[in-house]
Amino acid sequence: MKKLITLITLLVTVSVTAQNFQLHRDLEREHFTTTFEMFKMDKYGNTFTFIDFDYNATVGTGQAYFEIARVLKTEKMPVGLHVEYNAGHTNGFTIPEAWIFGANYSKGNAKWGFSTYAGYKAFTGAGEGNFQVTGTWYVNLIADKLTFSGFADYWSEKGDFVFGYSDINVFLAEPQLWYHLNKTFSVGGELEISSNFAGGSDAIKGRPTLAIKWNI
Asked: Rounded to two decimals, what is the model's pTM?
């Protein structure tokens, strides 16, 4: 789940619309993941969306996950209004859909930047309110050649869930390192760091990938 990395990276570029396609090889779980991202800016803020497919089933796709986020912000607003929807499905169960309503703040330039939001998270059918805090970042370590970027999420899961548990806090981060071959293709990877994620244990777990990215 690539989660707004493209959004914050592009907030400080001259491009107002961008999209990319990523192919990751999970070295521990030994499956491929494809990600499609799209980001678009306008005078009232920006829109970001992505979809992940995990190819971890014997017949093909084992999981699909989707997010779309809208930030309402004008030049006179120091803080943007964040609205997000996400949901997914696996071969075994449906990932609970959720809405997030919160505030967004971002800052950056051509060399570095960050974005963060905090909000109320409403899982369909949970019966209780939850929260989520997200931060994203990028650092252009070598101009036009090497970029360190990523995100970190922390959210609560209280209520009734299909995973068979409730009242936990989840941490998920995906720092990425990309070497830009040219303006179209990049190679690199990410390290998924998680705790209590998707039914896992509360121990900190790290899962690396190798990847290629195509900027469309």
From this structure: 0.89
